[in-house]
Amino acid sequence: MPVPAPVPVPPQRDVPAAETGPAAGHAADLTVLVIEDDPASGITGPELSAAAGTRVRIRTARNLTEAGRLLTDDVDCILLDLALPVPTAGTGAGTTTGAGAPFASGGGGDHRPEPAPHRAEELAVLTHVLRIAPLHAVLVLTAQDDTELAAEAVRVGAQDYLFRGELDARVLSRAIRYAVERKRADIAQHQLTESGLRAQENARLERGLLPTPLLEGSDLSFAARYRPGRSRALLGGDFYDTVRTPDGTVHAMIGDVCGHGPDEAALGVELRIAWRALTLAGLCGDRLLSTLQQVLEHERQSEEVFATLCTVDIAPDGRRAGLCLAGHPAPLLARHGRPARLLPYEDGGPALGLLPHARWPRRQVELGGEWSLMMYTDGLIEGRVGAGSSQRLGQDGMVAMVNSRLEQGLAGEELLEAAVTEVRELNGGELTDDVAVLLLGRDPERIRRRGRSAPRPGPASTAPAAPASASAQRPPL
Is residue 216 within 8 Å of residue 134, measured between CB atoms? Predict the structure, then answer.
């Protein structure tokens, strides 16, 4: 069986940036960029095409400066001779491609292993190519007697290596295919890892934005729903919380930081935790909101960032509440036997972060004996009414929608789920903004049933009661 003649690299033409390949008008299945400064006769595009069973286009460059100009998005693989001279400073070889930049900045090209110190100079040309082409598969050519250098090149980031003396069309075509598929697998794994990290980040942010309510001892019912908008992988700035203070007052709030992304979500978490801490410390109304504005002003990334907020503090008997609005939509109150209506919002103050010395008046609201109070972010009312329509649902549309569901006998979790689902359906698909909805309710009949079913106290004991543990006394933040 005849042994193929050794071929250093595929040939170059006299003109830089030359291309060889199939006839014009036929798209190449693979494009290979050969970087080698000492071309010799040997493998051509047609030879590789025949060996690979698919069309292969070859681009050639004598140095890294030419390679930088030829390194476009359609290049699938780079064939690099490690004997290529390293460019000197100021040659212009450091230009990165548009395809490579995002992957590099995302971590794919900035965290590769460094070459061993005694190999750094020999692999300088490879590290340069990996830096400017992080999305491309790279094959290196090296001398047959230097397996250690070849292995080190793969460790640093090349997909495979080839020896110059054992190169023919079949070996090269197979190596190119392997390198391309391996690079694709590496990128897919990198993206999968990033997706997993984003999911973990989302989970942490969600726990901070949407906590478990602290309502131990309260007779009020609680339900909540959150649906992220379709335009982001991360949560937005919607947040809510509910706590009961030792005097029996139930405090609830819902808010929205303008904008979307991790910074806004993190700020929402900070505001939510600050609200809970200040509420447990005894602040409410204007004092609480003024302090929250100070927190926002110190923590926000720019002066343009603001947050809307709605707070209510429900009296221990559950029949009345104090309401404060900071640029936020007014809650919806549904009393027994009456249609739901919006609470008064004329006396609301500005959003947090807009005016340095703003004030937020607290309005007293009569709730009655049996009621449901729905607090929400503007994502619920800004959805469209019909796919492609410019008309938004608005607060009036939301009130009508909730009333129709109340007439059907829905309440609690079922009411919120039906409302959020209907808003999405009216919009013709997922909403562009996040939606957070919180529902508090008081049902005297349920309270009476709970009282009848409560266990009767036994005979009085003269033994002193065991002290509560520190963990039981300290509410989680």
Answer: no
